[in-house]
Amino acid sequence: MIQALALVALTSPVAAPVAAGGLDDLVQIEILDGGMTARGTFLGAIRMTLADGWKTYWRAPGEAGIPPSFDWRGSRNVGELSITWPVPHVFEQSGLRSIGYKDQLILPIEITPENAGRPVHLKGEMDFGVCKDICVPASRGIDHTLNADAPRHPAIAAALAQRPYSAAEAGVRSATCRLTPTRNGMQIEAEITVPSAGSDELAVFEPSDPTLWVTEAETRRQGNTLYARSEILNAAGGAFALDRSQMRITVLGSKHAVDIQGCLPG
User: Fold this and answer.
1) Which residue has the higher pLDDT, 86 or 183?
2) Fewer Cβ in 10 A, N or C end of the chain?
3) pLDDT of residue 239
4) Is the pLDDT of residue 246 over 90?
5) What is the number of other CB atoms lying within 10 angstroms of the CB of residue 157?
6) Cβ within 8 Å of residue 173, ≥6 positions away
7) Does residue 109 contact residue 46 with C-beta atoms inside 8 Å?
8) Nearest by Cα to 112 from 44, 208, 31, 32
9) Nearest 5 degrees, angle CA 157-CA 107-CA 214?
10) Phi/psi at 161 (nearest 5 deg)?
11) Tens of pLDDT along 218-241?
């Protein structure tokens, strides 16, 4: 994370955090209610509507971007919370690649309550970045009681439908990862047997440890096999362990994206 933020500062002018009034000119943020699911969970979403030409970022923002983060410690009756990320866009600007969203982002949130039958209150802080010619780090408070009686929300349903395919849905036959120590960290080389996701495929590695930073992957395809190689660094320095079973690999292509959870030794 430290290296990633330093790279943003070096490659894109970063403005100071803006006040809420100024932020409203760049992005509008609201909470959508989607009612209850058949599983007894609450469904909601964060909707970010961006000003013309501005973009925000995916959870792994690439070479030049500010990843969003959430702090839900003020929430009540929240047992388990999961966010579904729609397939992002890959942006090329000034020789740098970033991954995110333009115009609008809807992030569905599914919450399993600690106590069924009682209200769920979301309260916390969302830190994120919006970028155009400059990148603006921003923060916005969230304070919303979810409406259990709300009808199905079409915007949430559309965002859920835009999620990446699972490995099974995409026809992944195997995914292996070979690890090799490097001077500053560890190189990871993945070999994934999967049908093409379209042109300009890009593989993104996400280790489960948030203190680890991953360089942009070199990605190439040969027949039905996708090869990807990247280097993983420890933001705090020093040696680290890497659990292949917890490595998340997302393949982004012009047709669709594939979310692969874990890889075997290769």
Assistant:
1) 86
2) N
3) 83
4) yes
5) 15
6) 193, 194
7) yes
8) 44
9) 130
10) -70, -15
11) 999 999 999 999 999 998 887 898
Q: What is the C-alpha separation between 145 and 162, in angstroms, rounded?
A: 26
Residue 22 is which amino acid?
A: G
pLDDT greater at residue 15 or residue 46:
46
What is the identity of the amino acid at 249? I
| Cβ 122 vs Cβ 75: under 8 Å | yes
CA neighbor of 131 nearest in space, from 12, 255, 250, 260: 12
Instruction: Kindly report the pTM of this predicted structure.
Output: 0.89
- Calculate the CA 9 to chain-centre distance: 20
Query: Would you place residue 8 in the very low, low, confident or very high pLDDT band (cuts 50, 70, 90)?
Result: very low
**pLDDT tens for residues 247-261?**
999 999 999 999 999
Alpha carbon of residue 81 to chain centroid: 15
Domains and CATH numbers, the chain: 2-161 (2.60.40.1250), 165-265 (2.60.40.1150)
Closest CA to 44 of 84, 101, 104: 84
Angstrom distance (rounded) from CA 203 to CA 214: 12
